């Protein structure tokens, strides 16, 4: 049996003391040389992270775990925070400790990637509630966020998603939700699995990629399950994926029910980093009530690919991480 990464890795005081200078060194790189050099420096310096953390990240990258999520705790990133942003295009413009933490940790899992059509193609993006967007099925909303594969419509979608908590919601009730196909698969019949492996499902472009007026069109039919029989990959968005026929719809509903039965809910605390395996787990969020007082829930997000090489034809000139989804 292959080893599995732990569900939770908690940094101890000695590990925190060791990584804080790495954050500072990376921030100096950003101040002097810009984002491309920052990405390269993070790749190099990430090898200096504590050995136990490196081992946990390595195991998760290679083997995953049953729940498809690894949560790191006690990252030292939350001192002297400004007000929570409240605009849909909010991104990190400077290399704060949280930005450094995301880059150093996530670089052990692959190559950072951003998408030109989403949040200005920024490397690190803010996830926070936005006035007027409460009902949106986007990271700017505050209603229940349906389970989804991140950017399910993209050819070069992220392999891993890093969600770092800077500030909780006021009621400490906004729960991150994940659900793994590894756990859900035994709840499906062989017939249902076979149908889910057929190209009978259409997924449309995510609304966060359509803020410039781009039409939210559906892509050609594709399967929602793929890969090895015993360890399939999952690509589905329960807001943006539609079955093509009644039989497919029945299997689709069975998949949703199975994922709901095995889902995990957990409230991220400041300094927690949830890393989601986007190939095996869908994620979402419970509803919560924002106050728009500068103290609302605030996460920062970074995507990585296992390797950027398959996407090189879409990486914008002059960038090492910004991918265009409209040309290539």
Structural features:
alpha+beta, four-stranded antiparallel beta sheet, 328 residues, Double-stranded beta-helix, 25% helix
List the SSEs and their pairings.
Blueprint: E1 8-10, H1 13-33, H2 35-45, H3 51-63, E2 69-73, H4 97-106, E3 111-115, E4 125-127, E5 145-148, E6 160-167, E7 176-180, H5 181-184, H6 190-196, E8 201-203, E9 225-226, E10 233-234, E11 241-243, H7 246-261, E12 264-266, E13 273-277, E14 281-285, E15 298-305, E16 322-323
Helix pairs in contact: 1-2, 1-4, 6-7
Q: How do you describe this structure in short?
A:
The chain is an alpha+beta fold and 328 residues long. The chain contains seven helices and 16 strands.
Structure commentary:
The chain contains 7 helices and 16 strands. α1 (13-33) packs antiparallel against α2, α1 (13-33) crosses α4 (97-106) and α6 crosses α7 (246-261). Strands 1, 2, 3, 4, 6, 13, 15 and 16 form an 8-stranded mixed β-sheet that branches. It has a 4-stranded antiparallel β-sheet with strand order 5-14-7-12. The protein has helices at 13-33, 35-45, 51-63, 97-106, 181-184, 190-196, 246-261, and strands at 8-10, 69-73, 111-115, 125-127, 145-148, 160-167, 176-180, 201-203, 225-226, 233-234, 241-243, 264-266, 273-277, 281-285, 298-305, 322-323. The chain has 328 residues and is of the alpha+beta class. The protein has a single domain (8-323), classed as Clavaminate synthase-like (Double-stranded beta-helix, 4-Layer Sandwich). Helix content is 25%, strand content 20%. β9 (225-226) and β10 form a beta hairpin.
């Amino acid at each position: 049996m292959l080893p599995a990464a732990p569900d939770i890795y908690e940094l101890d005081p000695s590990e925190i003391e060791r990584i804080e200078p790495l954050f500072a060194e990376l921030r100096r790189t950003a101040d002097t040389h810009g984002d491309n050099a920052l990405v390269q420096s993070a790749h190099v310096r990430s090898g200096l992270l504590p050995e136990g953390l490196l081992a946990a990240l390595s195991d998760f990258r290679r083997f995953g775990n049953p729940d498809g999520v690894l949560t790191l705790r006690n990252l030292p990133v939350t001192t002297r925070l400004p007000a929570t942003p409240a605009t849909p295009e909010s991104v990190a413009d400077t290399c704060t400790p949280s930005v450094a933490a995301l880059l150093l940790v996530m670089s052990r899992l692959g190559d950072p990637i951003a998408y030109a059509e989403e949040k200005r193609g920024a490397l690190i993006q803010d996830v926070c509630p936005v006035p007027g967007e409460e009902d949106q099925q986007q990271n700017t909303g505050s209603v229940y966020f349906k389970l989804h594969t991140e950017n399910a419509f993209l050819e070069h979608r992220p392999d891993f998603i890093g969600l770092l908590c800077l500030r909780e919601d006021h009621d400490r009730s906004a729960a991150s939700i994940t659900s793994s196909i590894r756990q859900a698969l035994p709840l499906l019949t062989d017939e249902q699995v076979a149908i889910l492996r057929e190209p009978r499902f259409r997924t449309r472009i995510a609304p966060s990629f359509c803020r410039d007026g781009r039409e939210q069109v559906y892509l050609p039919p594709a399967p929602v399950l793929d890969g090895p029989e015993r360890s399939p990959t999952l690509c589905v968005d329960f807001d943006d994926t539609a079955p093509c026929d009644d039989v497919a719809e029945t299997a689709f509903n069975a998949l949703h029910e199975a994922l709901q039965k095995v889902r995990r809910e957990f409230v991220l605390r400041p300094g927690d980093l949830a890393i989601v395996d986007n190939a095996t787990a869908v994620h979402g969020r419970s509803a919560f009530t924002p106050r728009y007082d500068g103290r609302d829930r605030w996460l920062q997000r970074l995507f990585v690919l296992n390797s950027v090489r398959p996407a090189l034809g879409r990486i914008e000139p002059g960038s090492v991480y910004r991918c265009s989804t409209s040309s290539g």
